[in-house]
Amino acid sequence: MQNTFLEELAQSLFHKLGKNISNYTVIFPNRRAGLFFNRALRKLIDQPIWAPEAMAIEDFVRQKSDFAVPDQLSLVFSLHKVFQKHAPFKEDFEQFYFWGDMLVKDFNDVDHYMADARPLFANLLEWKKLADTDFLTEEQLQLIQKFWKSFEAKPKDAQEKFARNWNILYPVYKDFRDKLKEEKKAYNGMLYRDYADRLKSGHTKISGQLIFAGFNALTKTEEIIISEAVKEGADVFWDMDAYYASPENIMQEAGNFFREYANHSVLGKTFPTYMPNRIIEETPDIKITEVKGNIAQAKFLGQLLSEQNIEQPEKTAIILGDESLLFPVLYALPESIEKVNVTMGYPLRFASIYQLMSICLHLQKNRRQEINKLSFNHRDVLKVLKHPFVGNLLGEGVKAKIQQIERDNIIRLELKDLYSEKETTNPLLDILFKDGSVNYFLYLKTILQYVHSEQIESTEQEFMAEIFKQINQLEQIVREFKLELDINSFIRLFNRIIQSIRVPFSGEPLEGIQIMGVLESRNLDFEHIYFLSISEDNFPGGSNNQSFIPYNIRKAYGLPTLEQRDSIYAYLFNRLMQRSQQMHLIYNSDNSGGKGGEPSRYLLQLQYELGIQSQKVKLQSLNQDPQAAAPVPITIEKSEDIRKILKLYSSERFLSASALKIYLDCRLQFYFRYIAGLKERDEVSEDLDAADFGNILHHVMEKLYGEVIGEVLDPNKIYLLKKNIDKFIREEFAELYGKKSEESDFEFEGRNIIIRDVVKRMVVQILNYDAKIAPFTVKKVEGEYEYAVPLENGDKIRLKGSIDRLDEKENSIRVIDYKSGGDEVKFPDIESLFDRDHDKRNGAAMQTLIYSYLFIKNEEYDGVKNVMPGLYNGKGLFKSDFSEKLKLANKELNNAEVLMEGFEQGLKKILDEIFISDQAFNQTEKLEKCTYCPYKTICNR
């Protein structure tokens, strides 16, 4: 293995300076490089010496100032205070935070790059009058003119909106800096600018024996600081390669900054006469692998590591282009790897504890405070109960509680509803499900403290500590600035702050396999590199650096732009190749998550540039783009076990009309429900589905007519029934939503108000029609009838049905079935009722005729009166010519008995198929039948 950059640096300095190295300060772009530098130096000495001071340039600059650097949140609060003095409108802090955060970053850039803020923030009129533009090149002037021309071309309201804010930015910038100076505070850019200005003006000298190492993209302030140091004798060590940094390789953006500094009046003198060409001469073995899916990347990494004999794990680095891969990667590491060091900032928004905090805030947002009653929405409650922390702390009982809520369809819950049967209190539930509006900060901190006190893994405890710190800080600032935040503002502000936070992992960076982000790899070299998620979306990624300063203005005044960012990422990528032996570059080609799934542009450069020159770049794909797999046909043959279950319908079980309808729709669905006994999944629904709607209609009609069974009903008696409609509908809704015992307290809300009114309208319409055809006598409601149908092999299949209403009118017994949907009363002939392929098969008519058949076969039927099947269907009820009578080939059916011989033949034929034949249970070919099938996920349709 060739020496790393830091080892080369240590050797060069120790060879030149010997023990005098102790008198020097070595300055790096980041702190981490200093640790590895000291380790490299340790290997060179054979007797104790004082180590040189190694530090990051940020720490060096802070030493030169008496100002403190506040955190970003405090800076945005301070800026808001200043902004309010100048803004022509008042804006709440919560609304201001998003672009206040953006403005602080813009001001930071302005100072880091030493831009003149007065002309930069000049408005259109000022720009046209501005005479002093000598400091701008012709190209810069054109860029600014181009922006203001495009500005004048925009719609008037867009111009006014931009100008309203832009015109106050200079006084805001100036007053913000003045305010911070008064308080002995500064943001980073301001600190750097102040030091650079003092150096340039000669008010201070850069003293000490300094060495700058490993720098690439310098801000203007860094350029001035290092240049002034070089004038005073400081040394600079650059880490670069001729492949991208030589003067002739202008197409390689990774070397843009080096080519610029090579021509610098001061920095140019620090460049070496010889530039190494390692990437070409000692090209590592590079494998580019396409993998489909993030988890697949982590598993593939685990496989690669298990195949490698890792003798010196600290010489292996795993670099993550996508930070969310951290935990999948940690879980995928082989057991043989004992030590791992994570050095990267992990976004707090991915942490499980943040998800819990967010869920709890929405629980509070949707709480409902009534007199002596605090209730929560079922969606929020279930999310809380299903969160892994809460589930683990509450134990097995929480599963039963979740099942109960879903089974009983409970929409709103109180704290007492969540206790188990033996509990009257529960510390965790009491903390979670209380009114947090008195103090949302205290509410969240109490939850954090409780969860933290339990045995939660150390990683999550770091996340909890960070969130706790942020909540404390936000609370302090809210109190200091006397902000008033309602729950919606609190949630938005909390989310914006937390989602911008990255938690640094602390560990021993000199031991074990190193896991890091690409920025953390600066100045470090490894023999084996595994770079995951190196796709275009992640590396370099899109422009997510939002700015209030337009692109043309940024470019004209030398502020960082997208091109500079791309150059930085290109350098970070290319330098990884300088001293490595083997690189595995892995990207996710899956574009289903809304991202492109394209390989990074740097991979393509490798393939078409370095690959051609060195022949050491190999491509492989773990899996080709999958074709949409055709659903595998499912067929269930009638085994002995299945026949045993079918036999039960001759002795213990009953077959229903709806089961026969399902069989004709799809044999396999019949098997799943009535043979395999697969239950539909319980889940809470705030809005009624078609089945619930129909059940409520049936039950309300049952209750209305159940009170007048045996009475001769004339129109007046029927109209009197209407007074109970509202009461019965409320009872049914209360029972459906698990509130039967609290029926009087049940409140209709949302779409259920509309559904309630639709049910009532249908009930009233049925009663109006009944009053029109009265008089009649209701004999039974929901009357159950059964009959054993004999088959050819001697078996008898027990058929059972519940008739919605049986009434007597004149010389007819009416068999009434209520249908809330759009079922038709017409059917072409008896054969069509049992023909699954007939395009006009009428399942509702078949069911009504089965009920008529069961009644006729019952001893209750006297054989004298007509049996008239009737369908009260939702589609027809509101038509002026509505008739409940079934229509056979467009002729009204007044007596079903005349059809019973043919009907029984068709019925027996289908029963023979189910119970006697070898016909397998297979899928329907009519895919429209699958749309609302509860088992469609099994069939993948």
Summarize the topology:
Layout: H1 5-17, E1 24-28, H2 32-42, E2 53-56, H3 57-63, H4 72-86, H5 93-112, H6 117-120, H7 124-129, H8 138-153, H9 156-166, H10 169-182, H11 188-201, E3 209-213, H12 220-231, E4 235-237, H13 242-245, H14 256-262, H15 278-281, E5 285-291, H16 294-307, E6 316-320, H17 326-332, E7 340-343, E8 345-347, H18 352-365, E9 368-370, E10 373-377, H19 378-386, H20 388-394, H21 397-408, E11 412-413, H22 415-418, H23 427-432, H24 440-453, H25 458-480, H26 487-498, E12 502-504, E13 513-517, E14 528-532, H27 537-541, H28 551-556, H29 562-575, E15 582-588, H30 601-614, E16 617-621, E17 635-636, H31 640-647, H32 657-665, H33 667-675, H34 690-706, E18 712-713, H35 715-720, H36 725-736, H37 751-773, E19 776-790, E20 796-809, E21 812-819, E22 826-827, H38 830-833, H39 843-857, E23 866-873, E24 887-888, E25 891-892, H40 900-915, E26 921-922, H41 936-939
Parallel strand pairs: 1-2, 1-3, 3-4, 5-15, 5-16, 6-13, 6-14, 7-13, 14-15, 21-23, 22-24
Antiparallel strand pairs: 8-12, 9-10, 10-11, 17-26, 18-19, 19-20, 20-21, 24-25
What does this structure look like?
The structure is a single chain. This protein has 941 residues and is of the alpha/beta class. Helices cover 47% and strands 14% of the residues. The protein has 41 helices and 26 strands. The strands form seven sheets. The protein has a seven-stranded parallel beta sheet. The protein has a five-stranded mixed beta sheet with strand order 18-19-20-21-23, sandwiched between helices. A four-stranded parallel beta sheet has the order 2-1-3-4, sandwiched between helices. α34 packs across α36. It is elongated. It starts with a helix and ends with a helix.
